[in-house]
Design goal:
With 88 residues, this protein is an alpha+beta fold. It is 24% helix and 31% strand. It has a domain of 60 residues. The longest helix is centred in the middle third of the chain and has 12 residues.
């Protein structure tokens, strides 16, 4: 049975069935979530040095950083093609 994946940038993928939420990066609570995940060694940085735009939380409580806009990622999860400039 093939696993559906979500491309999060630079050849990195996440099993789309494991995604709990996609959050816009930048707010203080999200920064605290990322800091706590880093301390607990649950943080995965898939930005390749780019600016973090999205934070993805999985059902295993891992936190994944992506440079792709959250609206674009949600569109990919729903199977909708979203222009890169939309939702920024």
């Amino acid at each position: 049975m093939p696993v559906e994946v979500l491309h999060v940038g630079f050849g990195n993928v996440v099993a789309s069935g494991r995604v709990v939420c996609v959050i816009k990066a930048g707010s203080s609570p999200v920064r605290r979530l990322v800091d706590q995940a880093e301390q607990d060694r649950r943080l995965i940085d898939a930005t390749s040095g780019r600016r973090t735009r999205s934070v993805i939380v999985t059902d295993s409580n891992h936190v994944i950083l992506s440079h792709i806009n959250p609206v674009t990622l949600v569109g990919k999860l729903q199977g909708i093609e979203v222009e890169e400039g939309e939702g920024t």
